[in-house]
Amino acid sequence: MTNPTDKLIELVNVTAGYGKNIVLRNVNLTINTNDFIGIIGPNGGGKTTLIKLLIGQLKPFTGEVIYHTKGNGSLIGYLPQASQIDKNFPISVREVVLSGLLEKKGIFGGYSRQQKSVALDLMKQVGIANLQNKSIGQLSGGQLQRALLCRALISDPQVLILDEPNTYVDSNFEGELYEMLRKLNERMAIVMVSHDLGTITSYVKTIACVNGTLFYHQSNQITNEQLAAYNCPIQIIAHGPVPHTVLLDHGKENQHNHNH
Ligand SMILES: Nc1ncnc2c1ncn2[C@@H]1O[C@H](COP(=O)(O)OP(=O)(O)O)[C@@H](O)[C@H]1O
Ligand SMILES: [Mg+2]
User: Fold this and answer.
1) Residue 49 alpha carbon, nearest atom of ligand 1
2) Where residue 235 falls among pLDDT bands split at 50, 70, 90?
3) For ligand 1, is residue 44 a contact (CB within 6 Å)?
4) What separation in Å is there between the alpha carbon of 47 and the centre of ligand 1?
5) Is residue 105 part of a domain?
6) Within its chain, how far is the Cα of 6 from the centroid?
7) 47 lines ligand 1 (CB under 6 A)
8) In angstroms, rounded to a whole number, what is the distance separating the alpha carbons of residues 93 and 148?
9) Minimum CA distance residue for ligand 1 atom 16
């Protein structure tokens, strides 16, 4: 059994970037069992860079990334930002989902009957089983996000890491997605990047604001004053019973994102 406060991944004094360019300085973050961390911050602030450090895709210039592997299950399931996916890559939805098991393929390169049945169950859960033989180029943005979610979940990870999973997702599925995450959080830690702080605050337990460095906020309630203190150009706007957010500095990448 894992202890509720067991450490799973730690970033210790991490400074990182690309080439000679530093994107994140002195980042400290611990992901514990049961965590549900919302990552917010402006475009280009380094959210995706932080995720790449967590999953080991990017090595820090200085500092350490420490993985605390428990048992022989998979540690990390990862849903990349949709803009990083090459939709022209000729691969079917089913193959995308199963590719989340890459290291666990049998020695003959095939997937077991059991793995295929888990893949099908996941696709059914998110309503894309009927699309399993389609190539990813034929999917809508929202359908692709669902396939990527299945891919992230198929290894039943201890930490589920999601980079803007709600981009392109219709509001119907968005609600379902968050409910699904809430259930999953009973058995796995979740780290989710989102532009939409207002919606996520009712699901996440803590918030990290990433803007050249990381400010950890030990609660899911955050005020405009605190955001300003973190130098995080996101504003909370009252929006009916649910607070809503806008980015104060719209970068080009999220221009399509205004309709939240
Ligand atoms: N592969 C890369 N090579 C060079 N610079 C990059 C690369 N990826 C991101 N950057 C730069 O790093 C900064 C942070 O980007 P990113 O982590 O994607 O921010 P966010 O996810 O918060 O929008 C930006 O200035 C971006 O241009
Ligand atoms: Mg990003």
Assistant:
1) 17
2) low
3) yes
4) 8
5) yes
6) 20
7) yes
8) 9
9) 46
What are the strands, taking DSSP E only, across the chain?
A: 7-18, 21-32, 36-40, 62-67, 76-79, 159-163, 189-193, 206-210, 214-217, 234-237, 244-247
Residue 22 forms part of a structural domain: yes
State the distance from the centre of ligand 1 to the C-alpha of 183, rounded, in angstroms: 31
Q: How far is CA 188 from CA 1, 6, 154, 160, in A?
A: 13, 12, 13, 7
Q: How many domains does the chain have?
A: 1
The answer to whether the CB of 80 is under 6 A from ligand 1 is no
Q: Is residue 225 part of a domain?
A: yes
- At residue 153, what are phi and psi to the nearest 5 degrees? -95, -15
Cβ–ligand 1 contact at 49 (below 6 Å): yes
Tell me the three state secondary structure of residue 236: strand
CATH (domain of 241): 3.40.50.300
pLDDT digit string (tens) for 27-74? 999 999 999 999 999 889 999 999 999 999 999 999 999 999 877 779
Range of the domain at 18: 7-257
Mutate which of 14, 15, 18, 163 for ligand 1 pocket (most atoms within 8 A of beta carbon): 18
pLDDT digits over 128-153, tens only?
A: 999 999 999 999 999 999 999 999 99
Query: Could you identify the atom of ligand 1 that is nearest to the CA of residue 81?
Result: 21
Q: Is residue 2 part of a domain?
A: no
